[in-house]
C-alpha cells in the first residue's frame, strides 16, 4: 500500500484525461465522461434513496478539511486485492459522489433567490456610499468657509477664558493637596480615640481625593502612605474585634461593625470573629488551668507553658480541682455570654435596617446589604454549635484529666452541680443536649459511684455490726424531706439545674441564665459554704414531745396535750372506733393507757441511727441521680442493694433461731409413751406454718446469692479479691455482742427486735414514698427492674414480723409445761366438772405474765399495734397447737374430738 501511495505521489495529480489514458481498456471503459455525469445528475433519483446513499457515507469524510482521503482509502485496502471487489467498491464511491454532487447542486439552486436579493442590497449600498462622499465634500467646503469667517480676537478671548478656568481648578487642587498632607496627624488621633469608623471614612475620602489628583507627582507618595495607614487601621480593627470575645461592649462593637461596613468587609469580619472566639476559648482555658498548675507546683518552672492543654489538665491537684473547674466555667461563661450578646446586637441591628428602601438608585446596595445580613445571621447560628462544641471538648479534657474516684461525696456532688449548670447553659445557648459532657461525666460518675457504693456498703456492714438497736429519738412530725439530702425534692426546678441551690425569687426561675446575668454576675459564683443552712433539726430529746419528758416515759400520758381528741373522750374501740355506752372514768382511762403497751401514743417513727444513715445515703444517691440521669439505673440498683442488705441483716439477726433445745421424755402413768420436748422452732421448720412466704424466701435467697459474700468468713486472709464477682459482694453481717436475745427477762430481746423490724418497715415506707420520684428518673427500658424491686422486696419488709416475733411468742410461754400438765390429767371422768383443769389456769397465768412483760418492754420502746397483734396471734396459735397436740397424745378419741370441737 505504501508503494502505491508513493507512486501516486511521484506522478502527481493529473487531469482526468491523462489519468484515463493510463488506465487499462477495462478501467477506461468504466470511467464516465462529463456528459454521462451530467446525464446521471439529470436522471430522476428517488429522494429517499439519495438520502440513504448520503447517510451511508462514513462520518470521517465530514470530519475536517485536512482529512487525507487517499490515506484513509489505502489503509482500508485488504492485504490481497480483488479486482472485482475493488470495482464494486469504486462504483459505490462514485454513486456516493454523484449523490453528494446532486445534493450540493440542489442546495445551490435552492439558495439562488437569496443570492440575487443580496446582490441587490450590495448595489444599493454602493449607491449610498457615493452619496455620502458627496455630502462629506460639501461639509468640508462649508467648514472652510466658517473658519475663514472667525477673527483672531474672538478665538484669543476664548483661549484666555479657558486658561483662567484651568488656573482656578489648579488652585483648588493645590488646596486639597495641602489638606491631604495634614490628614496623617488626624488619622493617628482618631485611632487613639478608637474612632475606627471616622478614621476609615477619612482615609477612604483621602484615597478618593488622591486618586483624583494622581497625575501630580507629590500625590503618588501620599497615596501609598494612605494605603499603609488603611492596612494599619484594619489590623487595629481586628485586635478591637478580638476584645469583644471576652467582654462585650455595645458601643465598642457598634464602632467595629460600622468600620467593617465602611470597608465592605462585613462577611470577612464575621469569619474573623468566629476565629477569635475559638482562639479566645483555647487561650482562656489554658491560662486558667496553667495558673492553678503553676500555683500548686510552687515554682517558676516554665515547662508547663509548653505543654498541651490536655496534658496540663493531668497536673491539677485534688485540692485545686473544684476551684479551677469553677473559674474555668466562669471564664467560658464570659465567652459564651459575649457571643450571645453579639447575636442579640445583630438581631436588633437587622430589625432597624429591615425598612424597605424606596429610592431606585440604592436597589443594588440594598440587595447587597440584605445578602450580608443573611450571611451574618447564618454564620452566627452555625457558630453556636461550634462554640459550644469547643467548650465541651475543653471541659471534657479537664474532667477526664483527673481520677475523681477518691473525692469526697460533697466535692463530687459539687462537680456534678457545676457540670449540670454548664449543661443548662449549653441547652439555653444552642439547644444542645451536651452529649460530650454527659458521656465524660458519666464515665467519671460510674467510676466514682462504684467505689463510693462499695465503701458505703462496707460502712453499712460496720454500722449494722455495731448497732445495739435502740430507738433514735426523732420528732413526731419527722419526714425525710426535712433532711438536707432530700431538700432538692421540694424545689420546683429543672432536674438539670443544681440541686443544692434554689432561685431566690419565683420570677428568676422563669428567666434563662443569659437573661438573669445579662448585665453582670456569673451563674457559677455559687456559695458552697452554707450546705446545711435552713436544715431542720429532726432529732428530739427522746422521740416524744410531751412537756414532762423529765418525769419518765411512764408519765407521758399524765398530760392531755399529746392525747388525740377521740381519746380525750371515753375509750374508743380500736377495732371499730365505736364509743361504749358506759363511760369510763379518767383514772380508768389513764390506767388503760399505761397498760396498753403505749398503743395509743403518738406514732413517733421507730428507727435507728443506722436507718437514718441509710436514708441519708439514699438522699445522696438520689442527688447524684437527679443531676446525672444517664447513671440513674446504676444508682437505683445500688439503692436497692442498700435496702437488700439492711433487710438481710435484720432477718439474719432476728429472724433465725439457731438455739438447739435438747429433747426429753415424759412418762405417763399407765402409758408407755414418751413426749419429745419439741421446740417451737421445730414446728416452724417442719410443719410449714407459713411464717415465711415463698416471695420472702425467694427474696432472701436472691439477696444471698447476688450480694452476700459467704466465702469471706471461711477463707484465709491471703485469698481475698481473687474473683471479680466477689468484688461486688459484701460479707454477711454479725450481730453485736451487746445485743442479748436469749434472756427471758427481756422477752428474748423483744425491744431490739421491735426496733430492728419496725425500722425496716419505716425504711420500706420511705422507699414507697420515693417510688414516684425514682420512676420518673429510671429509663423506660429499666423500669421493670424498679417495679420488680418494689413488688418483690419492698413489699416483703412487713412480712418479716411473723418469723421475728414468732420466736418471742414461742419462747416466752412454756408450752411444754402445758403438755406435762395435760399428760397428768385423768380423762376417764364420769361427769363434767364445773371447774376447768389446772393447765388452763397455768396457760392464763402465762398469758398474764406475758402481758405484764410486754408492758415493761413498752416502757423502753413503743410497741405498735401491728406488732402487738402479731405477738398475740402467734401466742394464740401456739397455744391452740399445744392443746391439739396434747389432746391427740393423751385423750381417748371421743374426748379428743370433743375438745377439738370446743
From TrEMBL:
InterPro entries: Syndetin_C (IPR019514), VPS50 (IPR040047), VPS54_N (IPR019515). Residues 1-28 are annotated as: Disordered. GO terms for biological process: endocytic recycling; protein transport; retrograde transport, endosome to Golgi. Residues 216-243 form a coiled coil. One of its GO terms (cellular component) is EARP complex. Transmembrane segments: none annotated. Residues 54-345 form the Vacuolar protein sorting-associated protein 54 N-terminal domain. Pfam families: Syndetin_C (PF10474), Vps54_N (PF10475). Keywords: Coiled coil, Protein transport, Transport. This is VPS50 EARP/GARPII complex subunit.
Amino acid at each position: 500500500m505504501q508503494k502505491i501511495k508513493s507512486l501516486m505521489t511521484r506522478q502527481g495529480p493529473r487531469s482526468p484525461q491523462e489519468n484515463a489514458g493510463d488506465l487499462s481498456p477495462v478501467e477506461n471503459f468504466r470511467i464516465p465522461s462529463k456528459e454521462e455525469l451530467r446525464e446521471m445528475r439529470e436522471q430522476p433519483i428517488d429522494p429517499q434513496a439519495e438520502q440513504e446513499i448520503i447517510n451511508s457515507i462514513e462520518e470521517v469524510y465530514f470530519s475536517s478539511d485536512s482529512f487525507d482521503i487517499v490515506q484513509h482509502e489505502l489503509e482500508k485496502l485488504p492485504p490481497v486485492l480483488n479486482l472485482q471487489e475493488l470495482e464494486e467498491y469504486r462504483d459505490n464511491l462514485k454513486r456516493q459522489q454523484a449523490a453528494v454532487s446532486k445534493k450540493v447542486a440542489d442546495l445551490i439552486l435552492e439558495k439562488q433567490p437569496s443570492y440575487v436579493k443580496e446582490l441587490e442590497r450590495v448595489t444599493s449600498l454602493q449607491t449610498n456610499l457615493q452619496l455620502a462622499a458627496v455630502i462629506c465634500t460639501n461639509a468640508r467646503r462649508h467648514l472652510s468657509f466658517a473658519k475663514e469667517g472667525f477673527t483672531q480676537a474672538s478665538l484669543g478671548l476664548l483661549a484666555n477664558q479657558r486658561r483662567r478656568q484651568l488656573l482656578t481648578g489648579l488652585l483648588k487642587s493645590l488646596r486639597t493637596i495641602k489638606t491631604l498632607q495634614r490628614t496623617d496627624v488626624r488619622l493617628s488621633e482618631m485611632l487613639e480615640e478608637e474612632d475606627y469608623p471616622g478614621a476609615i471614612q477619612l482615609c477612604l475620602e483621602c484615597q478618593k481625593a488622591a486618586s483624583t489628583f494622581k497625575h501630580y507627582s507629590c500625590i503618588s507618595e501620599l497615596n501609598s502612605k494612605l494605603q499603609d495607614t488603611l492596612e494599619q487601621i484594619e489590623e487595629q480593627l481586628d485586635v478591637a474585634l478580638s476584645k469583644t470575645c471576652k467582654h462585650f461592649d455595645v458601643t465598642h462593637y457598634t464602632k467595629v461593625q460600622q468600620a467593617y461596613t465602611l470597608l465592605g468587609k462585613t462577611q470577612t469580619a464575621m469569619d474573623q470573629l468566629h476565629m477569635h472566639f475559638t482562639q479566645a476559648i483555647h487561650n482562656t482555658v489554658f491560662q486558667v488551668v496553667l495558673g492553678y498548675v503553676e500555683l500548686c507546683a510552687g515554682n517558676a518552672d516554665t515547662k508547663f507553658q509548653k505543654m498541651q492543654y490536655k496534658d496540663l489538665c493531668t497536673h491539677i491537684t485534688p485540692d485545686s480541682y473544684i476551684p479551677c473547674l469553677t473559674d474555668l466555667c466562669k471564664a467560658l461563661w464570659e465567652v459564651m455570654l459575649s457571643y450571645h450578646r453579639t447575636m442579640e446586637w445583630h438581631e436588633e441591628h437587622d430589625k432597624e435596617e429591615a425598612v424597605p428602601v424606596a429610592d431606585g438608585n440604592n436597589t443594588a446596595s440594598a440587595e447587597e446589604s440584605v445578602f450580608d445580613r443573611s450571611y451574618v445571621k447564618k454564620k452566627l447560628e452555625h457558630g453556636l454549635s461550634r462554640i459550644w462544641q469547643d467548650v465541651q471538648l475543653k471541659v471534657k479534657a479537664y474532667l477526664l484529666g483527673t481520677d475523681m474516684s477518691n473525692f469526697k461525696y460533697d466535692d463530687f456532688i459539687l462537680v456534678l452541680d457545676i457540670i449540670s449548670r454548664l449543661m443548662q447553659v449549653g441547652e439555653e445557648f444552642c439547644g444542645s443536649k451536651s452529649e460530650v459532657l454527659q458521656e465524660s461525666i458519666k464515665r467519671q460518675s460510674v467510676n466514682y459511684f462504684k467505689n463510693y457504693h462499695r465503701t458505703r456498703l462496707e460502712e453499712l456492714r460496720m454500722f449494722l455490726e455495731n448497732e445495739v438497736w435502740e430507738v433514735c429519738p426523732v420528732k413526731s412530725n419527722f419526714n425525710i424531706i426535712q433532711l438536707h439530702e432530700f431538700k432538692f425534692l421540694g424545689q420546683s426546678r429543672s432536674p438539670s439545674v443544681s440541686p443544692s441551690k434554689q432561685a431566690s425569687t419565683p420570677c428568676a426561675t422563669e428567666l434563662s441564665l443569659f437573661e438573669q446575668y445579662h448585665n453582670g454576675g456569673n451563674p457559677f459564683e455559687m456559695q458552697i459554704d452554707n450546705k446545711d443552712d435552713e436544715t431542720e433539726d429532726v432529732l428530739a430529746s427522746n422521740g416524744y414531745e410531751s412537756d414532762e419528758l423529765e418525769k419518765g416515759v411512764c408519765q407521758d400520758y399524765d398530760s392531755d396535750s399529746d392525747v388525740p381528741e377521740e381519746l380525750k373522750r371515753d375509750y374508743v374501740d380500736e377495732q371499730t372506733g365505736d364509743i361504749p355506752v358506759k363511760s369510763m372514768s379518767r383514772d380508768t382511762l389513764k390506767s388503760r393507757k399505761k397498760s396498753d403497751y403505749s398503743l395509743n401514743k403518738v406514732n413517733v417513727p421507730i428507727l435507728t441511727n443506722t436507718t437514718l444513715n441509710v436514708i441519708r445515703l439514699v438522699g445522696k444517691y438520689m442527688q447524684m441521680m437527679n443531676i446525672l440521669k444517664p447513671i440513674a439505673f446504676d444508682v437505683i440498683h445500688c439503692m436497692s442493694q442498700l435496702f437488700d442488705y439492711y433487710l438481710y441483716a435484720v432477718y439474719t439477726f432476728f429472724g433465725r433461731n439457731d438455739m438447739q433445745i435438747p429433747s426429753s421424755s415424759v412418762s405417763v402413768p399407765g402409758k408407755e409413751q414418751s413426749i419429745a420436748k419439741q421446740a417451737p422452732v421445730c414446728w416452724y421448720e417442719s410443719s410449714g406454718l407459713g411464717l415465711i412466704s415463698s416471695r420472702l424466701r425467694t427474696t432472701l435467697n436472691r439477696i444471698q446469692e447476688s450480694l452476700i459474700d459467704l466465702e469471706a468468713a471461711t477463707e484465709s486472709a491471703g485469698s481475698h479479691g481473687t474473683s471479680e464477682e466477689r468484688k461486688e459482694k459484701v460479707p454477711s453481717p454479725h450481730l453485736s455482742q451487746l445485743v442479748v436475745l436469749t434472756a427471758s427477762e427481756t422477752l428474748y430481746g423483744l425491744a431490739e427486735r421491735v426496733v430492728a423490724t419496725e425500722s425496716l418497715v419505716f425504711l420500706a415506707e420511705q422507699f414507697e414514698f420515693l417510688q414516684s420520684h425514682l420512676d420518673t428518673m429510671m429509663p423506660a427500658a429499666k423500669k421493670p427492674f424498679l417495679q420488680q424491686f418494689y413488688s418483690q422486696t419492698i413489699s416483703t419488709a412487713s412480712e418479716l414480723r411473723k418469723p421475728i416475733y414468732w420466736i418471742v411468742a414461742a419462747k416466752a410461754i412454756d408450752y411444754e409445761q402445758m403438755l406435762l400438765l395435760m399428760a397428768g390429767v385423768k380423762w376417764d371422768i364420769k361427769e363434767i366438772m364445773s371447774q376447768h383443769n389446772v393447765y388452763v389456769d397455768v396457760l392464763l397465768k402465762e398469758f398474764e405474765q406475758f402481758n405484764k412483760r410486754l408492758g415493761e418492754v413498752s416502757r423502753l420502746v413503743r410497741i405498735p399495734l401491728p406488732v402487738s397483734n402479731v405477738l398475740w396471734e402467734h401466742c394464740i396459735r401456739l397455744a391452740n397447737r399445744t392443746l391439739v397436740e396434747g389432746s391427740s397424745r393423751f385423750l381417748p378419741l371421743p374426748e379428743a374430738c370433743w375438745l377439738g370441737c370446743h
